[in-house]
Design brief:
This protein is 61% helix and 11% strand. It is built from four helices and four strands. It is rod-shaped. It has helices at 25-106, 110-120, 138-152, 184-201; strands at residues 128-133, 157-162, 171-175, 178-182. The chain folds into two domains: 24-106; 108-201, hypothetical protein PF0899 fold, CATH 3.30.2320. The protein starts with 24 loop residues before the first helix and ends in a 7-residue tail after the last helix.
Length: 208
């Protein structure tokens, strides 16, 4: 026959852990919302960082492209300025030659008379003065020189010779120990040489 035992609680209530606290539904919702907000903020920050990096790369590429464009533009401007300078100098030289030719045609004796005026101031003691010019200018040059001789007191002998090989406006003045030459072709060559030197110094090649 079985014996009935009295049921006893083998439990120390003083050391029993308190029951787990149950989170209220509104607190749970609040924490979920906070987690979502944090996740959104982190995702937004990461997206901004990526967009900023992409924007920085785009700006760098645009800046490089702009620098290349400016470099090409400056090179083009330099080439244009060189061509413009060469053209302007050539035009000025052409106009100058045409004006000189026009003035010589109107007053062919003017340049030679200017040379005579310049040299006779220091020829008081020269024994003679020889002037070679185009035959068409002999009379005018003789008259001008004789008038100049009276003003300066030149007492030497004057010889004016016509030379058909000398162009109108050109001429040679000779005395015992010196002389002067007026040659439009030599002057033109000197002008061309100086123009070429100027353009070369400016970085412009002939023919640009």
């Amino acid at each position: 026959m079985s014996v009935a035992h009295k049921f006893t609680f083998d439990l120390d209530l003083a050391h029993t852990p308190p029951p787990s606290k149950v989170m209220a539904e509104d607190e749970f919702d609040r924490q979920i919302a906070a987690a979502r907000q944090q996740g959104y903020a982190q995702g937004f920050a990461a997206g901004e960082a990526g967009a900023e990096a992409q924007s920085a790369r785009a700006r760098a590429a645009a800046t490089e492209h702009l620098a290349d464009a400016v470099s090409h533009m400056l090179a083009g401007i330099g080439a244009y300025e060189s061509r413009h300078l060469a053209g302007a100098v050539d035009l000025a030289a052409s106009v100058g030659r045409k004006l000189a030719a026009h003035l010589i045609a109107r007053h062919p004796e003017a340049e030679l008379e200017a040379l005579i005026h310049d040299c006779m101031a220091s020829l008081e003691n020269a024994p003679h003065l020889v002037i070679r010019c185009h035959p068409d200018l002999c009379d005018a040059i003789r008259d001008t020189t004789e008038e100049r001789m009276r003003i300066t007191g030149f007492a030497g002998r004057l010889v004016v010779l016509g030379d058909p090989d000398i162009k109108l406006g050109d001429g040679r003045i000779e005395w015992a120990d010196g002389g002067l030459v007026r040659d439009i072709n030599a002057i033109s060559s000197e002008i061309n040489a100086r123009i070429s030197a100027y353009l070369a110094a400016s970085g412009v090649k002939d023919g640009d």
